[in-house]
Every structure is written in structure tokens, then in C-alpha cells.
Amino acid sequence: xxxxxxxxxxxxxxxxxxxxxxxxxxxxxxxxxxxxxxxxxxxxxxxxxxxxxxxxxxxxxxxxxxxxxxxxxxxxxxxxxxxxxxxxxxxxxxxxxxxxxxxxxxxxxxxxxxxxxxxxxxxxxxxxxxxxxxxxxxxxxxxxxxxxxxxxxxxxxxxxxxxxxxxxxxxxxxxxxxxxxxxxxxxxxxxxxxxxxxxxxxxxxxxxxxxx
Length: 212
What we know:
By secondary structure, the protein is an alpha+beta fold. It has one domain (about 15-210). It contains four helices and 14 strands. It has helices at about 15-25, 35-40, 70-80, 165-170; strands spanning about 30, 40-50, 55-60, 85, 95-100, 110-115, 120-125, 135-140, 145, 155, 155-160, 185-190, 195-200, 205-210. A hairpin with a 3-residue loop joins strand 12 and strand 13 (about 195-200). The longest helix has 12 residues, at about 15-25. Mean pLDDT is about 85; it is low at about 1-35.
């Protein structure tokens, strides 16, 4: 996944699908519950109702072992929790595990999307901390959208590290843009729809939504 000035392109037609999916509820799903424990990839398939019609979906979850760059303490916590890392429909390599200076300039922090039992959380680990901070949580089925002519829905939640320059550029069109920080933000994106920037300031997380 690549960070852009606006992290994802907006396509408002997708928003109707997103809300329909969120309201539709569970119809059918198939996955491998042993994948997290065994360290194997899981392909999640199923179907949901969108505008009264049954729509199939399919997306991948990767085990923590697919991300050898993670510090051992972070990997241990994720494995203990039973986390799998969901992959967006546009992924060409393992994604949704990122690092950056999220707590302060020069720090090496990590952020991860962790899926457990159909719920996905955005977790941030500061430096060597083993106690992640949860910034967001959504049911996986609320993060699905159509992305090709087949009509099969894919996962659309992705995270990226946004540098101070990228954060600044995302808000240049606003009348009163937020000050440019001296450290990175977590860019929390719904593909083709919106990006929320999570920025740690004065001991707490603040959210900024860029105009699309």
C-alpha cells in the first residue's frame, strides 16, 4: 500500500455499498479457525445482502509470521491474541502492518490491523511496549466493497504511515488546516472513500479527516 497526498481516491458510489453492507448483517461465511494458531494464510469467503441481493465476498488474512520485520515483543502479543492481518483487495504484497514515528519524532513505533473472530482492530505499539493502544474497531463485514466486474466484494480497510509532509499536504485545501506535526500520523483509509489521520499529540490521540 502506498501513501499518497490524499491516501485513497474517493468514489462516492462505494459509500452506498459500505453502508448497505454494514446494515445487511451476516448471511454466510467460511474460514479456517485454526489459521492463526498454525501460522497459515486464511481465505475468508461468504455472502451478504446488499440492496436486497446476495453478494459474495472474498479476502485474505495473513498470519503474523508473514511479517518478519515486526519486533519480537509485538509479534508475541499479536500471536497470543490470535491476530490475523486482513489484506485489502488491492494488496500486491503483505500489508496493514506499518512502522513510523507515531509517538514522537525519531521513535520507532508500529501499527497493525488485527482481525479476531470477524472483528478488526487498529492497534498501535509504542517503541518496545507490549500494551497496544486501540484506535478503531469495525466488523470485517462492514469493510467490504465491490472492486471489479465480477461483483465479488473485497476488504477495503488499509493503514499507512503518513509523514509530516504528507499530513500537511492532505489539509492544504482547508481554510483552517491543522499545524504540521513534527512526527508521523497513522493514515486510516477506506479505499476510494475517506482517510482519517490519527495523530498523537500532548499525550492523547486526535483524529483529523481530510477533505476529499
